[in-house]
Design goal:
The chain has 170 residues and is mainly alpha-helical. The protein is 85% helix and 0% strand. It has 6 helices and no strands.
Amino acid sequence: KPHNKILHILLQLAFIVVGLGLLVLGSDWLVKGAVMIAKYYGISELIIALTVISIGTSLPELATVIVSTLKGEEELVVGNVIGSNIFNILLVLGFTVLVSPVSLQVSKAAIVFDMPVMIAVALACLPIFFSGYLIERWEGGLFLAYYVAYTSYLFLNATQHSALSSFSAI
């Protein structure tokens, strides 16, 4: 039995190493593919990062929260979303700047539009978290609609589409 236990642990460690290796490879492919898309369509890398890469890196989280929701583990859902955002903003951004040979350049577009949107979304969550501690289905739909509006704006703005002024007015 001790032999089986050691073999089981070694197998789990091998899965972790292989999984991390595939994650690094997949991340490299995602970034290279996103840069190629941005260059091909003449769209800024910021727009691609705010859409394609953010969706690609969030798909595992989406799968996790769907499984957690179906199992009735609501605390895992909220904890995963909040923890992931804190992790990305503080640890990932902080670590990236620490290991980067140069300072991280933040585009004016991110400061003028995207960061205020991020702050507004965080503020929009406050009433939900302090009123009955429930996120209702309609509130989830509202957040989804906000995301669709945000990404639509990004693409309309990036392509200077004629519908941009009407969309912005709405």
